[in-house]
């Protein structure tokens, strides 16, 4: 399914990815614990995290791509299942940005740039970045850092949190506010951040090993990244902020070497995700992207050739060469008929060719094997809309959005389907949910107010719209109180 995203300025909330020295294996960790309970409760962190994510959706090019979301969420949760001190649910998101970066913030949110896929050679290297960010959250580094700042300055925790929220809404103003509040303790702040980075590396590499990934993935990723940008005038953001000395790589390799040797099997899904990023999110033209895939196909192993063929198929399809794309996808599906990457691409292809029944048959077979799968469900609804079977799509999407209220793609499709049927009130309601997910409370409430006015007086629909208006006003008040 083609992606849904907003393009705006990219935000770096904090330097939480940061390349600091990887320290010691899990058994050598000091008993630091996850303090900061005196600063913010877990419930407060969840509330701030939700607020940050809403602003981020409105201010950064977050990718709403069901296939990529499924992949990074699966990878992230595999790591979370092997992490220590997990106290919050976790959410994983991608930003369309070729630079190498990732960050974590309150409430279990981990956000990574698509540029990571352009530099990671294998899944263990990519997983090492996610493991590091997960450790920032489990060890509550942001809350602990704020607690430390509060001890050293006359400011309250509320003022510090408000500055962070402002930094997301308006980066320049927010950074100025944070600088003004912490100028008196700059060196202490830097030292505290460095200790957090070291702790995140220690916990992260231990999580990486327990999850079955190669512990060498972390030093290998940072090592070849440093080599690539060693003489560059514009290194990636994390190398600008945190240089990568040889001592750090030596320590990282030493730490990874203390774990048993691991040789994970090649992850087909990682290479498919990488191919999808190169084909659709790397901002390179048709000839360049096609050449990239063809060069690698000449020397690829038999296992990896399908992933490169998949990338070629996307490039062909997105540039209107449907017959070439169909030839490749038909071959890929014949060998792996239930692969979500292939099924998603085939759904796009047959929409372009207006062969809706063919697309629905493929997706239905996939859903019989994987009932309720989000990628297949969203694609199925999308094909129904394109086939002008909007009532069927609405039935599916109503259940989908109820189960996944934070996913913008479901609400976008639901708004489209209702719009095609001239169901203005329901279209307004679905659009209102999109506004709310982007912290645009006034437009969300306005949409629901208009929907209520269109509904039959005293009907269940009107009661539902009015109840949602009350909920949104409460959410708006809580959101305003955070600032």
From TrEMBL:
GO molecular function (one) = metallopeptidase activity
Gene3D superfamilies, sorted: Metalloproteases ('zincins'), catalytic domain, Tetratricopeptide repeat domain
Domain (Peptidase M48): give its ranges: 70-255
Reported EC number(s) for this entry are 3.4.-.-
Q: Which SMART domains match?
A: TPR
Q: Where in the cell is it found?
A: Periplasm
The cofactor named in the record is: Zn(2+)
**Quick check: keyword Calcium in the entry?**
no
- At the top of the EC hierarchy, this enzyme's class is hydrolase
Quote the function comment for this protein: Functions as both a chaperone and a metalloprotease. Maintains the integrity of the outer membrane by promoting either the assembly or the elimination of outer membrane proteins, depending on their folding state.
What name appears for this protein in its UniProt entry?
A: Putative beta-barrel assembly-enhancing protease
Organism of origin is: Vibrio rumoiensis
């Amino acid at each position: 399914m083609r992606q849904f995203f907003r393009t705006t300025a990219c935000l770096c909330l904090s330097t939480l990815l940061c390349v600091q020295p990887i320290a010691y294996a899990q058994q050598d960790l000091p008993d630091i614990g996850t303090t900061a309970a005196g600063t913010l409760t877990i419930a407060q962190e969840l509330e701030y995290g939700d607020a940050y994510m809403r602003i981020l959706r409105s201010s950064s090019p977050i990718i709403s791509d069901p296939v990529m979301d499924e992949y990074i969420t699966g990878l992230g949760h595999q790591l979370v299942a092997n992490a220590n001190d997990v106290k919050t649910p976790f959410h994983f998101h991608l930003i369309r940005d070729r630079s190498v970066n990732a960050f974590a913030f309150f409430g279990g949110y981990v956000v990574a740039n698509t540029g990571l896929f352009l530099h990671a050679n294998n899944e263990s290297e990519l997983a090492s970045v996610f493991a590091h960010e997960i450790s920032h959250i489990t060890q509550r580094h942001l809350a602990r850092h704020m607690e430390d700042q509060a001890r050293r300055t006359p400011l309250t925790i509320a003022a510090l949190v408000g500055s962070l929220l402002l930094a997301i809404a308006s980066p320049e103003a927010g950074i100025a506010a944070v600088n003004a509040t912490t100028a008196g303790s700059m060196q202490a702040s830097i030292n505290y951040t460095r200790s957090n980075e070291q702790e995140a590396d220690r916990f992260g590499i231990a999580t990486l090993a327990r999850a079955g990934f190669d512990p060498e993935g972390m030093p290998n990723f940072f090592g070849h990244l440093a080599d690539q940008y060693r003489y560059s005038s514009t290194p990636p953001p994390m190398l600008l902020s945190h240089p990568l000395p040889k001592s750090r790589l030596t320590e990282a390799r030493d730490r990874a070497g203390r774990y048993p040797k691991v040789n994970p099997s090649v992850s087909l899904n990682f290479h498919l995700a990488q191919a999808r990023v190169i084909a659709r999110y790397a901002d390179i033209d048709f000839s360049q992207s096609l050449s990239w895939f063809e060069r690698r196909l000449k020397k690829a192993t038999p296992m990896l050739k399908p992933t490169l063929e998949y990338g070629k198929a996307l490039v062909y399809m997105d540039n209107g060469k449907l017959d070439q794309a169909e030839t490749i996808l038909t071959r890929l599906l014949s060998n792996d008929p239930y692969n979500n990457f292939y099924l998603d691409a085939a759904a796009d292809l047959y929409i372009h060719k207006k062969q809706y029944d063919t697309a629905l048959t493929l997706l239905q077979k996939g859903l019989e094997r994987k009932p309720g799968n989000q990628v297949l469900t969203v694609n199925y609804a999308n094909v129904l809309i394109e086939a002008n079977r909007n009532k069927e799509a609405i039935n599916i999407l109503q259940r989908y959005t109820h189960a996944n209220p934070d996913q913008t793609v479901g609400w976008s499709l639901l708004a489209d389907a209702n719009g095609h049927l001239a169901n203005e009130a329901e279209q307004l309601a679905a659009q209102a949910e999109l506004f709310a997910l982007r912290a645009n409370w006034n437009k969300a409430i306005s949409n629901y107010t208009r929907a209520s006015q269109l509904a039959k007086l005293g009907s269940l629909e009107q009661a539902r719209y009015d109840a949602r208006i009350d909920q949104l006003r409460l959410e708006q008040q809580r959101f305003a109180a955070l600032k």
